[in-house]
Design brief:
This protein has a single domain (about 1-180), classed as Gcn5-related N-acetyltransferase (GNAT) (Aminopeptidase), CATH 3.40.630.30. The termini are far apart. Strands 1-2-3-4-5-7-6 form a 7-stranded mixed β-sheet, with helices on both faces. Helix 4 links the parallel strand 4 (about 85-95) and strand 5. By secondary structure, it is an alpha+beta fold. Helix 4 (about 100-115) runs antiparallel to helix 6. It has helices at about 10-25, 35, 40-55, 100-115, 130-140, 170-175, 190-195; strands at about 1-5, 60-65, 70-80, 85-95, 125-130, 145-150, 160-165. The structure holds coenzyme A. The site of coenzyme A (COA) has 21 residues, from helix 1, strand 4, helix 4, strand 5 and helix 5.
């Protein structure tokens, strides 16, 4: 069974491994091979140690676990943009665990935190323009693109990214609601196709 819990500083290592594996799996062709094949775990570890230990109350990170196994994470940073509010940075679900609703649950968890602590703010995420699956995911969650830009990439190059926003955090809360519980289907009353 999949469970979510808030991540702590001691989770920096597991998050760094998930993050590096996800970039290697999904960002090939978007970031330089030399960067992806280098010491990415150590680089991500330094990033997550800093973020989870130094950032204080303005950061919320959440882990998804299947039993003991970590299978995804998401993170949000408060007050990141005067206009657009909370930055969703990032959402990653392990390859092989995708399309099971984990990403949606992670975003819902971040949304719950944002609604509690920053109810007046919207939320936004930067997505690499070429990352079509992630864009489809955010569009499914009713985010809107407001701009695209070329920015510095973590590999030292540059990349085209698009800003997806939710102006209303309550709308995102609704968009991430779990589907209504499946009701048990009554057996068909004499289906015409088998009555012939
Ligand atoms: C994007 C990502 C986080 C989505 O996580 P996920 O757990 O697979 O997504 P969910 O199962 O919650 O999907 C919810 C809905 O989003 C849409 N969606 C998700 N992945 C999709 C894809 N690859 N293509 C099209 N639509 C997609 C679907 O409508 C899906 O609902 P459905 O499965 O019932 O059709 C995951 O694919 C991932 O980790 N990708 C690699 C890392 C990445 O690019 N992260 C985003 C960084 S900005």
């Amino acid at each position: 069974m999949i469970a979510l819990r808030q991540a702590e500083a001691s989770d920096a290592d597991v998050i760094a491994r998930l993050h590096a594996a996800s970039w290697r799996e999904h960002y090939r062709g978007m970031l330089a091979d030399a960067y992806l094949d280098g010491d990415l775990v150590a680089e991500r570890l330094a990033h997550w140690q800093a973020r989870l230990t130094e950032a204080g109350d303005g950061v919320f990170a959440v882990l998804a676990l299947d039993g003991e196994r970590s299978i995804g994470f998401a993170c949000a940073l408060a007050d990141s943009d005067k206009r657009w509010g909370v930055l969703l940075d990032n959402v990653h679900v392990a390859f092989g665990e995708q399309r099971r609703g984990v990403g949606k649950r992670l975003v819902r968890s971040v949304t719950a935190w944002a609604r509690e602590h920053h109810p007046e703010d919207g939320m936004y995420v930067w997505v690499i323009e070429a990352n079509a699956p992630a864009r489809a995911f955010y569009e499914r969650l009713e985010a809107t693109v407001v701009e695209c830009a070329v920015v510095a990439a973590p590999d030292g190059g540059s990349m085209a990214v698009c800003r997806y926003v939710w102006s209303d955090i309550d709308a995102l809360h609704r968009a991430t609601a779990p589907p209504p519980a499946q009701t048990e289907q009554a057996p068909p009353a004499k289906a015409s196709w088998c009555a012939q």
